[in-house]
Amino acid sequence: MESVGVYGFCGCTAKNKMKCDSRREVTASETAPTSAYSSPARSLGDTGITPLSPSHIANDADPNVSEQPTFLVVVAIDFGTTSSGYAYSFTKEPECIHVMRRWEGGDPGVSNQKTPTTILLTPERKFHSFGYAARDFYHDLDPNEAKQWLYLEKFKMKLHTTGDLTMDTDLTAANGKKVKALEIFVYALQYFKEQALKELSDQAGSEFENSDVRWVITVPAIWKQPAKQFMRQAAYQAGLASPENSEQLIIALEPEAASIYCRKLRLYQMIELSKAAVNGYSSSDTVGAGFAQAKEHIRRNRQSRTFLVENVIGEIWSELEEGDKYVVVDSGGGTVDLTVHQIRLPEGHLKELYKATGGPYGSLGVDYEFEKLLCKIFGEDFIEQFKIKRPAAWVDLMIAFESRKRAAAPDRTNPLNITLPFSFIDYYKKFRGHSVEHALRKSNVDFVKWSSQGMLRMSPDAMNALFKPTIDSIIEHLRDLFQKPEVSTVKFLFLVGGFAEAPLLQQAVQAAFADKCRIIIPQDVGLTILKGAVLFGLDPAVIKVRRSPLTYGVGVLNRYVEGKHPPEKLLVKDGTRWCTDVFDKFISADQSVALGELVKRSYTPAKPSQLVIVINIYSSERDNVSFITDPGVKKCGTLRLDLTGTSGTSVPARREIQTLMQFGDTEIKATAVDIATSRSVKVGIDFLNY
What we know:
Among the domains are: about 75-255, ATPase, nucleotide binding domain (Nucleotidyltransferase, domain 5, 2-Layer Sandwich), CATH 3.30.420; about 550-685, Substrate Binding Domain Of DNAk, Chain A, domain 1 (Sandwich), CATH 2.60.34.10. Helix content is about 30%, strand content about 30%. The chain contains 16 helices and 35 strands. The strands form eight sheets. The chain has an eight-stranded mixed beta sheet with strand order 15-24-23-17-18-19-25-29, sandwiched between helices. Strands 4, 5, 6, 7, 13, 14 and 16 form a seven-stranded mixed beta sheet that branches. A hairpin with a 5-residue loop joins strand 8 and strand 9. The relative contact order is 0.15. The model is unreliable at about 1-40, about 55-60, about 60-65, about 275-290 and about 295-305 (pLDDT under 50).
């Protein structure tokens, strides 16, 4: 077995805090790997690489980033956990944002400028319908027939909760049958694409081509990289864009989109909660009165689906000065996202100051608490069976709960009635042999009574108790955030997202933080992200600096240093001692990264005659990573540079392979270039297929 050694130098700057030896030697060998990942030194056929002088970080942005292709229209899709929608704006009229046509169907007391994120497949697993249409059709099916159909709702949360997400991850339909998550997301995005293009074609009076559209899809900022990549892959398969034209699709982070819209807010378009004491109102008065007024304003304007965004900076925003900080709390159906932004003048660009935090504290938490309450009253075994045997009736019950959930308020005194579907009452009697009323009497739940009209009667305190765990989690998370030094001098807190409509959440945020900063809620709070996503699509450069969620690097080989390198990493060949599996860092977790920024490193192959150079890229949530075998380090990309056919070229003895990583919206692209021949290979960092 042949072993070769090459010398390498590292000229790292202090900025990226790389700890390195000034002189390194590396080798390639074919010994079996010692860990789950193939060692860059030891795996069969791989050639080791070593850092080569001069290796450096280049903070220049890619010159191609600014050359944005031109699109006629921007369409943003807010793909939510509980509800979804789209909005668009023509690039020639950027001040007009059009929210999609009114959806068919809807629930009393629930705004339907969005549609429920529900999808229905036929028994043959073909797409049937989406949103209200899916829900209503499923509801009208005969119970025995309904068991054959695949109905899915709230499925977006699966991308957040699945630790090992892949392109083969499954979802479970209401009837218990499994279906590929990718298939469902592709169907949903195809549906939005068709709806939007049809509406645009109707408006234009002629067929509207997909190539004329820039698409923006919003995702939670706290999603891990695999989930963001999954959404992009689904969009490619749905035909919104393609890997070759990746710039046609922007993945926008939900709180960033909200932040962009909040810049434009005029005083009449917002409610300021923190002014309660100043104006002499009690907190609940302000929350209730302010929001009732806002809802009335929205109701009056519901017929108009066009929102004018004035080409000015709003009054609140104009109070912000260079370096001022604010928090965006995006509370949706599934997750709550917290981001801290800082203003950069004169253009008012945004800089992410502290990496996105949050968790699964969306309004779904209230639904789970309601389900736990039902299990307590009627038994977990019954509820599980009812969901399987009467899936459509279970959906009905949760719809009835949703409308009452929206009526919960801090100062409410009268009870809330939740209608139980007849099949619930009937099935319970068959299952247990006694009535629902009997179950309520026997249970120790004294704040839920039975009403003779076939309803569960909940006291306001009982309803408020269902909100408490979720709201407590949000407040606790915000408190932790406000302890951070970067967040101590925040001027504003913008509360956005569908769950921000809940007066109970508004009051809790106000009570906890009104003395720390000004709390602002946009009037059309549920559409804030959608409108901001359109504005982002019109001007993607508005977000200038993000925080890297992960540490990225490549696997390299170094000269073994006694006392510094672990003995198990030692490889002795021909009397020379080598250290394998070294993690050579490109960028650290939580490091500031400008959009489009390039980070460069130079390497040389360990074997000068090697014509296939393999560079493995790794990531970790931790900052202090030494080896690719450290816990939590994951392989997320491979650059395979084939240099066969270049032997005739004059190649230096120590061939320089320049490796570049470019940080884009939610994508990271890596390139390896052979400096002598200019031959190159590109790869997108891939979190789903390794």
